[in-house]
Amino acid sequence: MKFKVSSAELLKGILDVSKAIPAKPALPILSSFLFELQGGVLRITASDSELTLITEVEVDNCEEEGRIAVSSMHLTDLLKTLPDQPVGIRTINENSIECSWTSGNSELPYFPAADYPDIKNVGEDAQNVTFPAPDLLEGINSTIYATGDDEMRPVMNGIYFDMSESSTTLVASDSHKLICYTTTAAKTEMPLSFILHKKAAAVLKGAIAKEAGEVSILFDASTVQFKFARTILVCRLIVGKYPRYRDVIPQNNSNILRIDRLQFLNTIRRISVCANKATPNVKFKFDSNVMEVTAQDLGFNIAAYEKVSCDYSGDILSIGFKSNFLADILNNMSCETIVMKFLDARRAAIIMPSEEEEESEKICGILIPVLV
After folding, report:
1. Which one-letter DSSP state was computed for residue 324?
2. Among 48, 62, 132, 270, which residue has the fewest nearby CB atoms (within 10 Å)?
3. Rounded CA gap, 309 and 364, in Å?
4. Rg of the chain over CA atoms, in angstroms?
5. pTM: predicted TM-score of the whole model, two decimal places
């Protein structure tokens, strides 16, 4: 292998895929980047065997093609110290490469590409859907915080993509709260679905943060591939049946609260200071355009109370929620005003942006009440 490339372009390429390098690799070679040089294009791969990132970098001068696995730590640390300039990389023996720049050079270790594990990609029967990157990013941001962490129910540890002819809904739940993000920007010819693990979703979120184009999604029963710009993310899916989330969305709620989101959030934060830290329950009492919020911790003999004006219509209602769950939902919405609907104190409440702020996208939160 022998080529020249811009140090800044090479650094950007390896940083784009470095999130797939595991901290404690199952195989030592997985701490390396796989370099594949062909036709003037350097293909860079990083993987932890569950998740793989691949990108391509144009090289300036390709004299000898080849495949090698280069130590990620050494190469990254070296390139970070160099100003943007042409860098020459060539193999000099069976286990070393030379990296040369204007004023010097360095010898770094490499390993045979044949030792790098094969990357499983999607099969020939893979389904395809196109998703605008900004919408996909917003969908992940709106739901990933609500994913679970339950070894006994792995399907709850990811984001469920529920696709149909009219829209796509991203769903996440930890059994206490459920978040749905629906967009009409991505559609399929028939109902399709898959569950993306939250770790892969977090990596994908970072990778597409600055993308403005479209993301091509290919998936089969066990694997998904996201392709955007010159980067590909491949990972295993969570296999299993996601719960019938639409069945838990409350209907015909007669008690309706409209309130400024930030005012509501700050009130909860203030009052929850005096809630029990183990069970941070906060109690709400709703009456005609008045909301009373209380919390107490009998163990420390502390309590808090606040009375807030609001737009409320319905029966006089007392209901309790875990303050951290409710604050999470409010904090991850970007609207100015929220609508919160209840049927009674025992059934789940629905939280969404006020009707006048809704567009084609819709974020909906479901929260289970607690006894207080």
Report:
1. H
2. 270
3. 24
4. 26
5. 0.92
